[in-house]
Amino acid sequence: MNIPFFTDYLMLSNPLSIGIIAVFVLVLIGIYVLQRKGTSFGNLVIIGTIAGAVLGIAVQIIAGFLMIHPKWFTSRKVQSGSLS
């Protein structure tokens, strides 16, 4: 897939990017279907938040964020109001 429209304009140089976008669209369709079935707004918000968090964490893991910034997920000691 070396088409300039995809690689330069949409920044889709990796097939994995298309897969992530497809999963995102499926989540949106799932929420739409739940809304059409009469699911309450509060439940839709909770489901959307959880689905977005799971998708976001999955994207960060796939992108290697945990390997680049491992300090984010280790405990830090807070002393006198400042992070160290």
Sum this structure up briefly.
This protein has 84 residues and is mostly helical. The protein has 4 helices and 2 strands.
Tell me what the structure shows:
This protein has 84 residues and is mainly alpha-helical. Helices cover 65% and strands 5% of the residues. The chain contains 4 helices and 2 strands; from the N terminus they run H-H-H-H-E-E. Strand 1 (78-79) and strand 2 (82-83) form a beta hairpin. The longest helix has 23 residues, at 41-63. The protein starts with a helix and ends with a strand.
Which features characterize this protein?
two-stranded antiparallel ribbon, mainly alpha, single chain, 84 residues, 4 helices, flat
Q: How are the strands of the largest sheet arranged?
A: 1-2
Biggest pleated sheet: 2 strands, antiparallel
Shape: flat
Query: What fraction of the residues are assigned to beta strands by DSSP?
Result: under 5%
Total number of helical segments?
A: 4
How many β-strand stretches?
2
- Give the SSE order as H and E letters: HHHHEE
| Proportion of residues in helical segments | 55-70%
Overall mean pLDDT score? 78
Q: Please report the distance between the alpha carbons of the first and last residues.
A: 45 Å
Oligomeric state of the chains present here: single chain
